[in-house]
Amino acid sequence: MVDIRITLDTRRVNRMMKKLTPALRKNLGKATLEFATIAKKSIKRQFKMQRKKAPRDRLANLMKVKRLSQLKVVVSIPLRAHYLDTMRPHYVSLRRGRNITRWARRWYNPSLRKRGRSRVFRGPGGGIKPSSFLWVTKDPFVEKGINRIKGRGKTILRKVVKKSIKEAK
Question: Where are the domains of the chain?
């Protein structure tokens, strides 16, 4: 699992937390957890939405939110999904027994090639010949998912501060 940390700037916040009411302290912890949950849902939605052809539901369901401390929350992403998000473009040889060869046999359509770098040769029985290869590129979804929810952090914090002020009165 790869973790994406969602934290408040702890040095400034720790100084400020000593002066704050216990209600605001508790509500800020809830706000970070709420924002992390929204981030996880957005990343998960983006990951499922960007699927090329193969379904990604099982891998997306492994994404989780974990609380490390009152102000630190982590969104965990499976390592395979992280590799899809960050890998460098490269060629993959299609050999018998590989998962990507099974994927190419089932989903790859050579008429939909974008740049024409992949070469998948099919035999007379419809199988893939050993000299075939695919050009594989990354499929960035984490950054797109987080960019989609950037503005929500401010609204969540405003809501928390207003709620804490009401509780303090």
Answer: 2-85+139-168, 88-136
